[in-house]
Structure formats: C-alpha cells, structure tokens
Design brief:
Helices cover about 45% and strands about 15% of the residues.
Amino acid sequence: MKYQFTTVDNCKVFYREAGNPENPTILLLHGFPSASHMFRDLIPELADQYHLIAPDMPSFGQTECPSRECQSYSFDYLAHVMDAFMEAVGLEHFAMYIFDYGAPVGMRLALWHPERIDAIISQNGNCYEEGLGKKWEARKAYWAHPTPELRKQYESAFALETIKGQYCFGTPEGSVGPDGYTLDYAYVQLPERAEMQNDLIFDYQSNVRLYPEFQKYFREHQPRLLAVWGKNDPSFIPAGAEAFKRDLPNAVVKYVDSGHFALESHHSEIAGYIKDFLR
C-alpha cells in the first residue's frame, strides 16, 4: 500500500494505492462522512488481482482543499476535482466502486467519460428515487424551504453518536470496530469541515435531479454493474439495488446482512462478489 498526495485544482488530494498497475484498475469512491480509510480492509483482499486507487474527496479525510470563502462546496465541484485527479494519476480505463456520496460523484464521471468505465460496483450507491429511505422525506422538505434553523438542525449529522449509528445500525452485534467512526468524527471537527458538509447535504438535491440522466446513461451504454447492498441500510434501501435491473437487465444484485457501511462487517464477502463479477 502506498499513501500519496497529488495537487489538482487547488486541492492537495490524498489517495491510497495498492496492487500492480498492470492489472485492471478499480477506482474506489467513498461516502459521507468517511474517506478512503473505509476501504482499509477491502483493498488487501483485492490487491493481488487488481490495481486499486482510493482518493479522499475535497472536504473529506486527508485531502487539503480551499476554504468556503474561495470555493463553493457542491457535488459538481467534488466530481470536477475527481475528474482532474483521474487525469493527474493517469486513469484511462477502470471499474468504479461507488458508495453513498461516491455514487453521484462517480456517476458524473461516467456521464462525462463513458468510454473510461469498464464496470460499476455500487455498494449502497443510489441512483433511483425508490432507493431513498424515509429520512429523505425531511431532506426534500428542507431543500424546498431552506431556513437557517433547518440548516442548524443538520449539524446533528456530525455528532459522534449519529456517525456511530450510521456504522452500526443493521449490523451483526459486535461486528463493527470503533476505528472508522472515531476517525470520521475527528475529521469533521477540522476547521470548516462541518460547514462544508452541511453545504453538501443541501446540494444533495442536485443528485436526485440527475437520477434521470444517470438512468439514461445505463440504458444507452449498458455498463456491467454489480449492486452489492447492505440490506438493512435505512438511508439507501434495497429497492434502489433492484431498480438497476430496470435499465440494466444483466445487472447482478447481491445482499449482505449489514447496514450502510457494509464493508465494516462484510468486506471479505463483498470482495468475493467483486472477484466473481470482474473475472
């Protein structure tokens, strides 16, 4: 494993890299409120057969990024930085592992560069309205009528107990260690991080608006797709995994008995599904 930085678009992007670059590449895109460390157990399971690159997106993890005075934080911005990152590290063809926030970022990359995408592995990476759990009803109301008071309420998303709940809900008892959620909480305490993340919560509506474009991409380009889902995730529910089959009849859908951060408890099982799918 190598731990490296490269500077693109005024961001010093941190990334993990493992495996032989001569092997097929998988770009691993993390979700909220995590960073590339969420792949710490998966990468060693795949590194003997694949070349793996896992960046920290702007406002996450170890990546150093502009202040909110200089830069607006949106999913378009995250995707443009990841696009520049791909150019900087020379990614021309790759499979994508997309999770949570990594899904709308990765899908923007697919819209912009469909010729580069060899396959998609979506782990609780939603692209359909029916995959949105109940909590999104309140968020849609916030998007429609934003107020400073509602924005303030979403600061609860950065509390340690909330982050821990994202990791542990729906997982077998005792299967999730404290490392991931403790580190995520530490990152969100960094200067301006909570406000950047709150900006992204509000901008998530841009992803829902793009769902029809993502689905059109699926229909037109028919990428190979594996949806491997923590079936107990309250944020992105199993209906979102099944929906891929509507546009991709050959999509492979698998479930693990876990929640949102399914890699914390089922990384070996998920690695097995990936190997079977990509072989």
